[in-house]
Amino acid sequence: MDVGSALDSLLAIAVVAALAPLLLGLFPRLRVPQVVLLLAGGIVVGPQVLGLATPAAVEPLADLGLGFVFLLAGYEIDQRLHRQDAGRRALLAWTVSLVLALGVVGLLAWLGVVRAFVPVALAMTTTAFGTLVPILRENDMLRGRLGRYLVAGGAAGELLPILAIAVFLGIGNRFVALLSLAAVVVLAVLLGVASRVMRAGNRLATVFVERQHETSQITLRFTVLLLVLLLAVTERFHLDAVLGAFVAGMVLRRWAGPSAPVLEEKLDVAGHGFLIPIFFVYSGMTIDLRAIAEAPLRLLLFFALMVAVRGLPALLVHLGVLSLRERVQTGLVTATALPLVVALAQIGLRNGTMLPENAAALVGAGVLTVLVLPTVAVALHRPAVQQDPRHEAPAPEDRRAVE
């Protein structure tokens, strides 16, 4: 593809990315998550409608944007969550979802509706936390009691399926898959050691502090280097790069140390200002509208199963700690899925185990969850000052988990 065509595609995507927040600013009553407008804009400028842009022209930038999505998702998570009530309930809810998914998809496989048992079952348990972070943040839903449980539920619904995919589906050789996971663990350990070195006050720490602003931007450059390295090394096994980006984000705040607030601002600028919108517009461009139109009932079936399998356990698990409205919001948020659903559909098609109509319907259902569920959750949201006063605010030591 020539440079001119690539620039034309990038220009069309830039127009969509710029117009999305503008429309939300001009029409404040339009309580639609920005990602919905980006996906819809991708469909419009993509090859199936106006044909102003082609996915292949911006695929490398979209891959980097996907890496930033998972990096920032991991960055929002406090590793202490699993020791808190929110983390334990999130793990229980995901486990219940997994059991339900295995049972429901097993029945569909017995009926001959589904052929790729494992990918479809895992798709029912995913949460698009990386996709949801900008939505939740811009609507101030990551703070307070509700925010703590939303973060925990999103983390469980994204990290645990990624681990399962990497082991069971990401690579044909199971031994290599386990080595890949071990490599990610080593990465986390190395970054943890690096954080201690940074706090030791040596020359390296001084260089990072002195050169993190103006033209050097050393912390941001090393973050981008880490992401590009992961994407390059795992080019043929993209899910492992996603896992690495997610884990890297989890330890990045600790690695940054005192520079964490500064680095967070830089990541927001680079990610949400440029790369992440490209990924969402690209995702809209790749949606197979014709296949979805040919099997609308499958799409609605998968959509209903995603809401039931992933959302209903949240209603039950959070009894006693969240109000009914907040439990509904938690169920809607945790049932929202897209990036991993796309990846699972691609794996099923590549392995020849998933029917093409099921792959298209599964992706379409994931898109529908992004279009509908966060919008309803946002519409139900109330400012923190209006929350039930009987529930106390999170303890000071827990606020990092939701800020």
UniProtKB/TrEMBL annotation:
Bilayer topology: Multi-pass membrane protein
Transmembrane segments: 6-28, 35-54, 60-78, 90-111, 117-137, 149-169, 175-197, 218-235, 241-257, 269-287, 299-321, 328-347, 359-380
Organism whose genome encodes this protein: Pseudonocardia lutea
Taxonomic path: Bacteria, Bacillati, Actinomycetota, Actinomycetes, Pseudonocardiales
Cation/H+ exchanger transmembrane domain ranges (all copies): 15-376
Keywords: Antiport, Ion transport, Membrane, Transmembrane, Transmembrane helix, Transport
Listed name of the protein: Cation:proton antiporter
Coiled-coil boundaries: none
Compartments in which it is found: Membrane
Entry superkingdom: Bacteria
Pfam family, one: Na_H_Exchanger
Family assignment from sequence similarity: Belongs to the monovalent cation:proton antiporter 2 (CPA2) transporter (TC 2.A.37) family.
